[in-house]
Amino acid sequence: MGNLSLTFKFFSMKKMNIWVPVITGIAGLLIGAVLTFGAIHLFGQNYSITDPCPPTLTQTQVNSYMNKYLSSAKPYQGVIKGFNVNAQEVNAWTCLLKNNSLLASFRAYKGIDEKGDSLLIVVGVDNAGKDDKSMYYRVVPVNGGPCPPICDKN
C-alpha cells in the first residue's frame, strides 16, 4: 500500500496541472494536422479547376454593364438565406488569387451586357475592403445566386 500511495503522489494533480495544457496543445496540433492533410488529400483528388480563366473585362465595360443592370434593377423584398456559388465563380477567384495573392475576399456584381445577357463581374477585394480594380472577370450566372430562389428543396 505504501508504494502505491507514493506512485499516486508522483502523479499528483499539482504536477499534472503543468503538463495538461502542454499535452492537450500537442494533441490538438497533431489531430488538426492529420485532419487538415486528410481533407486536402480527400478533396484534392475530387476537385480541381482545370478551366482557363474566364474572360477579363475593362473598367469601361464594368461601368457600362453595371449601369445597365442598375437602370432596370428591382429591389428584393425577401430574406436571403444564403448564396449558391457556381464553379465559374470559384474559377474566377482562383485566377484572381494567382494574379494577387494578398486579396482578402471577392465580390460579384450583377451586370447586363450590350446583347442584354445577364452576367456577373467578379473582382478581388483588398484588406481595406476596396475592390482591386486591376482585374475583373466576366462569369455567366448559371446555377448560382441568392437563396431564395436558388435553394435546395430539402
Helical residue percent band:
40-55%
Q: What shape does the CA trace take?
A: extended
Radius of gyration: 26 Å
Kindly report the average pLDDT value.
79
The tally of domains stands at 2
Number of strands: 6
Main-sheet strand order equals 1-5-4-3
SSE sequence, one letter per element = HHEHEHEEEE
Range of strand content:
15-25%
Continuous helix count: 4
Low-confidence region ranges: 5-9, 41-48
What class, by secondary structure content?
A: alpha+beta
Q: Sheet bearing the most strands, described?
A: 4 strands, antiparallel
End-to-end CA span:
63 Å
Topology:
Elements (H helix, E strand, L loop, with lengths): L1 H9 L2 H34 L9 E2 L1 H14 L9 E3 L2 H13 L5 E8 L5 E8 L5 E9 L5 E3 L7
Antiparallel strand pairs: 1-5, 2-6, 3-4, 4-5
